[in-house]
């Protein structure tokens, strides 16, 4: 079965745009086995798999992703075959499938799973001028093993009538004895 020649990792919490997704995924595909990826040339069109589908292994659970998958299919003509599961289960599945994995793209939601997947050696490096142009260096692996898709903001919320901002403005402050047993993470 022909499939995308590169697997990439996408990490994030919320979707960006359909154009971003379609460019991200199609820029990774190339069915030839030489290392000249046509998508590395910005003037050439993105390569697409000859199977007409991309197998997306995803642990994301966001309703917006369905819109992204449908938009990607509409824009590119490539069907998204979604395989959903818990991140650790998908990592183990890809690892056990080895070179025979059907996964073209692995998408998860947090950096802890990124480290687990990297430790499991399930990533294949990819090089793409499009990805490098559109994704900041701080959101991608320097060796091309993964590319961040979105960022997640962690915030501290508190009642300003009861807590002064200077008392609780960093995560380190939360670890202090004053706040022991008083916080919730949700």
TrEMBL record:
Claim: Magnesium is one of the keywords in the record: no
Biased composition regions of type Low complexity, renumbered to the chain: 30-42
A Pfam family hit: SBP_bac_1
PROSITE patterns: PROKAR_LIPOPROTEIN (PS51257)
Repeat keyword on record: no
Chain intervals for the UniProt region annotation (Disordered): 30-52
InterPro entries: SBP
Coiled-coil intervals, chain numbering: none
Keywords in alphabetical order: Ion transport, Iron, Iron transport, Signal, Transport
Biological-process GO terms, alphabetical: iron ion transport
GO cellular component: outer membrane-bounded periplasmic space
PANTHER family on file: IRON-UTILIZATION PERIPLASMIC PROTEIN, THIAMINE-BINDING PERIPLASMIC PROTEIN-RELATED
Entry protein name: Twin-arginine translocation pathway signal
Origin species: Crocosphaera watsonii WH 8501
